[in-house]
Design goal:
Two copies of one chain form a homodimer.
Chain A: H1 3-23, H2 37-42, H3 53-64, H4 86-98, H5 109-125, E1 145-149, H6 152-167, H7 171-175, E2 182-187, H8 193-200, E3 208-211, H9 222-234, E4 238-245, H10 257-266, E5 270-274, H11 294-297, E6 300-303, H12 305-308, E7 316-320, H13 323-330, H14 340-344, H15 363-398, E8 402-404, E9 412-417, H16 428-445, E10 451-455, E11 458-464, H17 472-495
Parallel strand pairs in A: 2-3, 2-4, 4-5, 5-6
Antiparallel strand pairs in A: 1-7, 6-7, 8-9, 9-11, 10-11
Helix pairs in contact in A: 4-15, 5-15, 6-8, 6-13, 9-10, 15-17, 16-17
Modified residues (N6-(pyridoxal phosphate)lysine) (chains A, B): 307
GO molecular function, one term (chains A, B): aromatic-L-amino-acid decarboxylase activity
Family (chains A, B): Belongs to the group II decarboxylase family.
């Protein structure tokens, strides 16, 4: 494909995407293909001869689109928003075209330096404090700094490695981990990536202490955390990291970061704050409270622009207060990567900030998003999501059949079908069954996509708002589908008791 | 940015990329900006109001391009080729536009199933054997399978976790690692990612046994490996993984996979094959020898289409013979990810194949490349690189001043400046100094970019061919620059002895 052919073919792809976005709302959100059917359709060997791009695009439409669940659909309300956006797609396209590899500062200085600047910008806008910046306001170098990770799972894993490095005075990286000695703490609502990090780091699942939450707010119980820390220390174990959740996956609960930080530091443990979904909301002054305590207490903090901040996957922004712990845990300098800039200490080599060596120019994507929307545009997007979620909360509250399952937070509403049309409460097991059936009914209708969780053993629906193409009308339409499905299920339930 | 604005703006980005590729050969390959200068230039807060894309593109040209080292430059010969290509850029653009999240099969079935099919296609084309396929030729499900990782570092890390899972009967993930008990083996030429994997997994650096290589071929010494295994077992340690290198970073050496596999399995250890750069060459029948022994002996294997196979970063293809060990080490199923398809066991949930939970639709990029080039186009690209490298080898051999430092392999030639113009051998330390100075001279000329390594304490240049825009003329031109710089250095050295 020559440069001229590239121009022609690229325009076809651009048109394909613009058309896809314009019409995705007319498609069923959730794919209902059978396992194996897409593989069956695309099976066959690599062709011997080149095929025209038109053939590929035609096969995307014919063979792949039926098997897509459409994350950019305006009525995708499952899991969390995973915004693509025109600006991010173009920023990522630039990154692909430039094709620079930023493993070292020296292998493309702009890749590292733009990332430092953009993460400093974002740290300030999120209220994280100067302590997390590469460069302080007065121009002097900071002790901390930010890096773009692929996902919050990787951010949490590297936070744990940094914490372990600090707790062991560097012995963990050389000597390995002593089984049973180190412990990690988070609430029962923490994301599963913490457990995975414990598995991967050699600490093992049993190192993770699962702390109870308040049954209504779903916030970590600080007294229970204090007890757990005390018991482990008494038994000779070493608390390595406490993780606070800012916006849990289940219900968006925000843990008491300040109290947790004080406790963690009293025991010499690292405080990691997982704000993967909710943290970006702090760009709006009225939502800045979500990051309260981070500036004073966190050792590390992660939030994902690739979730609710319009920045196509992958782009997880991660900051540390003390980069020496992170770099100490991960740095290696083989001869073939040695260079004068690295040895001068004047540059950031991001290979030492994550598990991978290679890395693409993700900062240009985030930079394009921040500039194309501006703070005003980003805030408008976030506020639209919060307003739409408030409408969902209003509808839930006004309907006697539904009960909130936890306090709503920002764009996330957790609720369940818990009563009949008259408002008479259903037995818990029956409400579980009907709530799950309600989700299946909505999801298989093709009209919208919700997901679920369990709280205290009860089944709960999660309605996560925040799509970049979602409008108030999409919320109303989805509510109608949900309400009609509830009518049908309750009617059916009434007709066939038990 | 509306859909119509997106079309307009996207065309500007496409034109920017086409122009960049067309003119990149006229730019200095290696950026020579001072540390901090790019950051200084782009510094400032996030703007309040949206900025037009034109402003972003203009700033890319004005502020970022001077700080780029151009990996897509036709005379980029450092490290390894990291091919972008028109087809890959368009495939990745599709992935961004679709914006699907493939953490579970259920969250977008096409994302998982296309990946399974494409990796089966590639496994067959690379001669890895049916054992590494998701689906056998007869349609029955295999015990192994492939996954797209971000980098070979992650592939190696997950191979180690799978090996550890198998060696401990699953205890590592629950109980953690016992410091000092487990060992890992590879040659002194193995990539630093193995050491990093040992650090991250809790085994620690001291778990890694560095096995000597032959001083000329740089291949692992099998007898030394056997000794090391024996000594560890005698001391009560458990060999977990042996890593064979197919194309070392330094010189492209190919370890004796068959003998290493036999030894590894005799001790119950996992054989991981790191063919990150060289493995893709096996698409050409005449280079299929690089993967000899893999089909019979490897437990896992990685090669990176994002290096020499025209597939814009990131795309690292990784296969395992027994997926249950990998999935066993990494799977977690919290309530909010439960779904009927996962529970049926009939689907692949790729979240259990890597550290991350979230994942983008990378398979559509690789699929677009494989179809747009076809096997014939891919082979033509690989063969061009090998032919250009053979020309470099011929030039080195014909010039009395230069000495090969190891056997050339495929697209990689390692050599050093070791004699004066008359062919009289220089003292080793002087040859080291002049070889390093020669690299600096070439790289700062802006004409080409080479990198270096050390072999047995001696400084060696690495000339890595394989760029998608590289022609024979680029090789000749670079040789001229190199030869002229050597003239100057040797003349200067002769004038100022010592």
């Amino acid at each position: 494909m020559s440069a001229e052919q590239f121009r022609t073919e690229a325009h076809k792809v651009i048109d394909w995407i613009a058309d896809y976005w314009a019409t995705v709302g007319e498609r069923p959100v959730l794919s209902t293909v059978e396992p194996g059917s897409v593989a069956e359709a695309v099976d066959g060997p690599i062709p011997d001869d080149p095929e025209p791009l038109e053939q590929v695009l035609s096969d995307v439409d014919r063979l792949l689109v039926p098997g897509l669940t459409h994350w950019q659909h305006p009525r995708f309300f499952a899991y969390f928003p995973a915004n693509s956006s025109p600006a991010a797609v173009l920023g990522d396209l630039l990154s692909s075209g430039i094709g620079a590899q930023g493993m070292l500062w020296a292998t493309s200085p702009s890749v590292s330096e733009l990332e430092q600047v953009v993460l400093d910008q974002l740290a300030r806008a999120l209220g994280l404090s100067e302590a997390f910046c590469h460069r302080r306001e007065d121009g002097s170098p900071g002790a901390g700094g930010g890096v773009i990770q692929d996902t919050a799972s990787t951010a949490t894993f590297t936070a744990l490695l940094a914490a372990l490095h600090r707790a062991t005075g560097g012995r963990a990286r050389t000597e390995g981990v002593e089984s049973g000695r180190y412990t990690v703490y988070a609430s029962s609502q923490a994301h599963s990536s913490l457990q995975k990090a414990a598995m991967m780091s050699g600490l093992g699942e049993r190192a993770v202490r699962t702390i109870d939450v308040d049954a209504w707010t779903q916030q970590l119980d600080v007294a229970a955390l204090a007890e757990a820390l005390k018991a482990d220390v008494a038994a000779g174990r070493v608390p390595v990291m406490v993780q606070a959740c800012v916006g849990t996956t289940g219900t968006g609960a925000v843990d008491p970061v300040t109290e947790m930080g004080a406790l963690a530091h009293r025991h010499g443990a690292w405080l990691h704050v997982d704000a993967a979904w909710a943290g970006v909301a702090a760009l709006c002054p009225e939502h800045a409270w979500v990051n309260a305590g981070v500036a004073e207490h966190a050792d590390s903090y992660v939030t994902n622009p690739h979730k609710w901040l319009l920045t196509t996957f992958d782009c997880s922004s991660f900051w540390v207060r003390d980069r020496s712990a992170l770099v100490g845990a991960l740095s290696i300098l083989p001869e073939y990567l040695r260079n004068p800039a690295s040895e001068s200490g004047a540059v950031v080599d991001y290979r030492d900030w994550h598990p991978q060596l290679g890395r693409r120019f993700r900062a240009v994507k985030l930079w394009t998003v921040l500039r194309s929307y501006g703070l005003s545009g980003l805030r408008a997007h976030l506020r639209a999501g919060v307003a739409q979620a408030a409408r969902v909360t209003g509808l839930v509250d006004a309907d006697p059949r539904f009960t909130p399952a936890a306090p709503p937070c920002l764009g996330l509403v957790a609720f369940r079908l818990a009563a009949d049309a008259s408002g008479a409460r259903l037995p818990d097991a029956e409400a579980d069954r009907l709530t799950a059936a309600l989700m299946t009914a909505v999801n298989t209708s093709g009209e919208a996509y919700l997901s679920h969780t369990q709280l205290s053993g009860r089944t709960v629906l999660r309605w996560a708002v925040g799509g970049w193409q979602t409008t108030a009308a999409d919320v109303e339409r989805t509510w109608q589908v949900l309400s009609d499905a509830a009518d049908e299920l309750l009617g059916h339930a009434a007709a066939t008791p038990g």
